[in-house]
């Protein structure tokens, strides 16, 4: 008696399945490329650094990562600022800034994306993830 509604719902869902999500214009997340051949994640590359494949698909990062290298830059800026390399959970590395005290940012610190594009420099900005304890301090 009521089975007709189910087929209508399936048709509607199927018609939208081929559409790509609009990944640009979202400033609160980082998009990256993943090689469809070997699965390597990369940021702002045209070719896969591992297999040189050019068949890359765009994915959206969760925005959670770990500081791999942190430096303090004094040049060309009125105030010293932090420049860090952050390895995201998906396996790619971005250059950006971590908010917080400059001396309080170290390799291994866990960070979370705050803004994908700093309005001044267009760099991703991260914030330290507050942890209730530190295992090795
Ligand atoms: Zn590859």
TrEMBL record:
Start and end residues of each ChsH2 rubredoxin-like zinc ribbon domain: 29-56
- Tell me which domain of life the UniProt entry assigns to the organism this sequence originates from: Bacteria
InterPro entries found in the cross-reference section: ChsH2_Znr, NA-bd_OB-fold, Thioester_dehydratase-like
In this entry, which stretches build a coiled coil? Answer: none
The protein in question is named Zinc ribbon domain-containing protein
């Amino acid at each position: 008696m009521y089975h007709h509604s189910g087929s209508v719902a399936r048709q509607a869902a199927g018609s939208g399945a081929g559409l790509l999500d609009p990944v640009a214009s979202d400033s609160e997340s980082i998009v990256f490329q993943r090689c469809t051949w070997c699965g390597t994640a990369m940021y702002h590359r045209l070719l896969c650094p591992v297999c040189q494949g050019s068949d890359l698909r765009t994915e959206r990062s969760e925005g959670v990562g770990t500081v791999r290298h942190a430096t303090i830059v004094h040049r060309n800026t009125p105030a010293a600022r932090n420049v860090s390399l952050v390895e995201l959970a998906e396996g790619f590395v971005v250059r950006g800034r971590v908010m917080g005290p400059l001396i309080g940012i170290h390799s291994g610190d866990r960070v979370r994306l705050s803004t994908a594009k700093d309005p001044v420099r267009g760099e991703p900005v991260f914030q330290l993830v507050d942890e209730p304890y530190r295992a090795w301090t």
